[in-house]
Amino acid sequence: MTSVLTKSRAGLGRAGSSSGHLPRESHGDTIGPMAAGIVILACWVLLALYWNISARSIKSAAEGQSFGARLARMPVWLGFVLFIAAWVHPLGIVAIRRTAFSDAIAIVICAGGLFMAIWSRKALGVEWSRDVELKQGHKLVERGPYSSIRHPIYTGHLLMGLGTAIGSGLLVAFAGLVLFVVGFWIKLNQEEHLLIRAFPDEYPAYKARVKALIPYVL
């Protein structure tokens, strides 16, 4: 009996040891759902803060955008809603299994997107606007990231969306990313039409020379 109990306890000890490693397998092989989520959330908060602070020093609009044209970009906001849903209620179909590598990649991509968005916003300066509109004395910007990408702010946002989706790992977050792509593609085309009309000579040449979102690719 003593021998049986000893073996039983030894077995429980090994089971306990194994179960003790379960948190490491579910959390320890990742940076941790909370830690990765905090870093990604911090990226979005920093972006929002910079956007609102920098919006105080821009030119007034010479030609605004209609309410209907703004509504055409609703997929972007719906994408945000799905990103939030994926992090607040992390349940549903798993698209990719989260690991330490995927968490690290998610953070790097999201932080890279933040850097791209802020750098691009700074390069755009007083010509920037929330909506697709022309400013008083509007000038075509081709410096900084605009020398290699026509819409680097959108590239930055899409990278942040991709990092957020990978960090979540859930299908709903990747659905949010798809909506992000659709929404920003709509806004990109709205902006292209406006700039071609505003700069009929300069913009077509710039467009032929520089890709829209990914240098030398797209």
Q: Could you describe the largest sheet, including whether it forms a barrel?
A: 2 strands, antiparallel
Report the portion of residues in β strands.
Answer: under 5%
CATH class: Mainly Alpha
CATH architecture: Up-down Bundle
Fill in the CATH topology.
Four Helix Bundle (Hemerythrin (Met), subunit A)
Order of helices and strands: HHEHHHEHHH
In total, the number of domains comes to 1
Please provide the count of β strands.
2
Give unreliable regions as ranges: 1-30
Rg is 23 Å
Helix content: 55-70%
Mean pLDDT: 83
Annotation field: number of helices: 8
Q: Biggest sheet: strands side by side, in what order?
A: 1-2
Q: Structural class given helices, strands, pairing?
A: mainly alpha
Keyword list:
single chain, 218 residues, mainly alpha, Four Helix Bundle (Hemerythrin (Met), subunit A), elongated, disordered N terminus
Structure at a glance:
This protein is mainly alpha-helical and 218 residues long.
Explain what this protein looks like in three dimensions.
The protein is an all-alpha fold and 218 residues long. The protein has a single domain (33-56, 65-209), classed as Four Helix Bundle (Hemerythrin (Met), subunit A) (Up-down Bundle), CATH 1.20.120.1630. Helices cover 67% and strands 2% of the residues. It is built from eight helices and two strands. A two-stranded antiparallel sheet has the order 1-2. α4 (74-88) runs antiparallel to α7. The radius of gyration is 23 Å and the shape is elongated.
